[in-house]
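<derive_structure_tokens>
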Amino acid sequence: MNSTPYQPLRSSDGQIRLLILHPASEHDAPIQCFLEPAILSSNPAYEALSYTWGDPGNGSNISLSNHDFLVGDNAAAALRRLRWKKKKRVLWIDAICINQTDVDEKNTQVPLMQKIYGQAQNVLVWLGEPTDGSILGMRLLQNRMASVGWHQWKIDKDYGKPTLPFTKSFRSSIALMNRSRLIQEQSNGEVRELLDRPWWRRTWIIQEVVLAKNIQILCGAEVVTWDLVASLFKRLKMTQAEVQVFGVKLSDRNIYPDQMYNLISRYHQEWHSNGGRLDLLDVLYQFRTLECTVAHDRIYGFLGIVHPDVAAKISPGYHLDVPQVYREFARTMIQVTNNLHVLNCTRYWSGVDIGTPQQEAYSILEQSRYYDIQALISDGPDKNPRRGWARLPDGWERIPSRDRSLFRDNRDRTKQASESSPLAGEQPVRAEHFIKQRELPPGWTKVWDNLGRARVVYGVGETTREQKLRNERELLRQKLSRLPSWVANWECPSRWDPKPFITFSLSQPRYSASGRTTAALNSHPNPRVLSLRGQIIDEIRQLGPVWHPEPDRPPISRKGINSLVEWESLALIELPDCPYGGAEGRTHALWRTMIADYAGAEAADSDDWAYIETWYDRTGWGRELPDMASRGVFETVTLEDEIKELEVVMNAQFLQIRPVPNLRTREILKHPLGDFSHRKKKYGGYIKRIYDACAHRSLLVTYGGYMGLAPWNAQIGDKVAILHGGETPFILRNIKGTEDFSLVGEAFVYGLMAGEGMSDASSRAREINIL
């Protein structure tokens, strides 16, 4: 008998292994399965599993082709749930069907992923085992409202009535409204928890789902189709309006952590409607923050969903060092595409981490562990105190139970619990909005077990495995710090990454700084050197202060943003040889720079300067938007009305700057709301464009008088270059003592975005070496 369940595969013929899962009537019965070879061209019938490996834990032994075989806890749990009672089930699971100890086999099987997931009858998304709350979330997704109500009542009772006793809700209209919102938050919060499970942060899930014909989401024994998630969002939008001003969301009261779901859905639709072709750089940049065990997979994990001409040129090489993989990938992209889009992906990252996002607990069952849910709270100075949620002092925890809650101070070594809350007898605490409840207090951490279930814990330290992974990541960062400047580091995004100026997936680019030239690599003996044709156009003379916006959303006006006010002062300084024709031209150039305006026919209408001038807010019409989460239900409703009035104020300011022509007065009188709605929407579009263009960048002014936008790490004296095949200009920095350069990043320079700098390109073009 062979010592391994694996027999060699003919990957070049499209041969894979399928897992035959034997039936069992009992959930805990031993798992028995067999591997069978299959040729993809024969269209075998099977379903493909998409799941997260996670921490293997103790693992579980299964019988695999009569061999004892150790699989991770999550894989074993999935197999038990997927197993039918009376007939075999045919599956494909990467951790089992590919010999993970054979690097050569992995290298040849990874290119088959497109067909494996594309041909599967169903792709089964395994989120893990259920919690008491997740069952509620799955039932809501299934739109089984009767079951939602019953299950909600049951867990509310088991956890000490976190939605507050029904009888107390009649004591005031605010209490009644508060209980209604809490009940809503309870069910919606469990859907949020499902969307926050570890599966959504895994790199490989993207191609696994994008390629799928049919997608089912499983949590324990509950199953929903992929589209049912979107159906829930649609239902909620009709019943629970979001707080917005100019289209910018101010409160995520009803927002789900659904960015990943929406992105995957978008690419799934594009894949199946565009003949199975996506732009690789677009996909890589959008999903660069996802997690993967092996850094190679930041590229290899997406090869199944991109243009075949590109995928065919990139052969997985898990035996190669990560820096070499990233460097060869950059060269290959230039050779295959004949453009420099891959250079638009480079970002300065060394010493800048991705940031630590605020952890959030979406389940109110978990939130109630760091709250007293029966504390005395106040909705305002003229309102009577009532019972509700108040955050416990640092370190204190509520222990929920059906009969009564207990409280303990986790900092107390005895860990003794008491029926008395530390807030008992205290003055009323100011009411908070539900979204504030999601923010974990200091010392609390949200963790997931091997089966995808979340819980919040106090004072948990770093595990041995987590410490090992952190050390491995730090070693990899040190290796990647020696990457050439022209190579994008896909492993280490930072919180200061500006949004690319270009849109990778557009067939017709919005800019053409290098005219009709194409990128071509010059030969060079040093593989770390990128040798291109191009020309140095100008040099940075002045830089405005960097704008790192806080919070992470478009500001409704420039009021209070001193760095951007300084940009205007710098940009409008009179210069003797101004390429824009003087003061009026520089004013015009500035507003177009602030939106990184498109070249050619897509450029903004000349009359739209008034929207940017309104945003400059020279009269102080804007106001600082309040922290909605710090207010209770009553105050929040009042503030929402006040915030919406800002749109009316903006409209009045706009009409002062650009009065409506008399010829349109009759139309405006006939359709006043329609015209206002149009301006409001357009203004919102422009403030988003300003944010996208300017965030994490500086305003530059060159010796030639040009203005533009540079990466936040640019320096005075850096060069503005146009490289053949580049859609945008690039900022280069001379390497001291040489004629070579390092790449600082992409740039926007008004007046050079449509090929204007290429008028005498043939005479000025030279070989430019970038290290």
Notes: The first strand starts at residue 15 and ends at 21. The mean pLDDT is 89.
